[in-house]
Design brief:
With 139 residues, this protein is an alpha+beta fold. 45% of the residues lie in helices and 17% in strands. The chain has two domains: 76 residues, Arc Repressor Mutant, subunit A (Orthogonal Bundle), CATH 1.10.10; 54 residues, Ferric-uptake regulator, C-terminal dimerisarion domain (Dna Ligase, domain 1, 2-Layer Sandwich). It is built from six helices and five strands. Helix 2 crosses helix 3 and helix 3 packs across helix 4.
Length: 139
């Protein structure tokens, strides 16, 4: 389990109970929309407002703790910053699955960016399609 207080302080933020609870909820559930985070956080802290959750998520995103995962046609989801990986995003249910980049994909990214004389620092790859579950149910 991550030490959220250390993570927040290392990224220049105070370790408030709201931020620590938001991070705990996201780590437990993976990729979550702001509304889903809010629904979980108010179970522990019912006095927190949706605006407070939004404000803290944006602040933690700006400080490199959280990453926004855009979902085509749906609300973005958020996750804790991790090593570079790809997202398989279902356009039917909005589910997000992490997949580690393979050596082959890394080589392609670096080859493409080198051709453009572009120094690659980090990447976020989002692949959109229909997950196995939605294919089976014909959603």
């Amino acid at each position: 389990m991550t030490d959220y207080a250390v993570l927040l302080k290392a990224n220049g933020l105070k370790a408030t109970f709201q931020r620590m609870n938001i991070l705990e909820v996201i780590e437990k559930h993976g990729h979550m929309s702001v509304e889903d985070i809010y629904e979980e956080v108010i179970k522990v802290h019912p006095s927190l407002s949706l605006a407070t959750i939004y404000k803290n998520i944006i602040l933690m995103q700006e400080n490199g703790i959280l990453v926004e995962v855009p979902i085509a046609g749906k609300k973005s989801k958020y996750e804790l910053l991790k090593s570079d990986h790809m997202h398989l995003i279902c356009t039917e249910c909005g589910g997000v699955e992490d997949k580690m980049c393979l050596d082959k994909t890394d080589a392609i990214f670096h080859e493409l960016t080198e051709e453009e004389h572009f120094k690659l620092n980090k990447r976020q790859v989002n692949l959109y399609g229909v997950c196995e579950k939605c294919q089976e149910t014909g959603a």
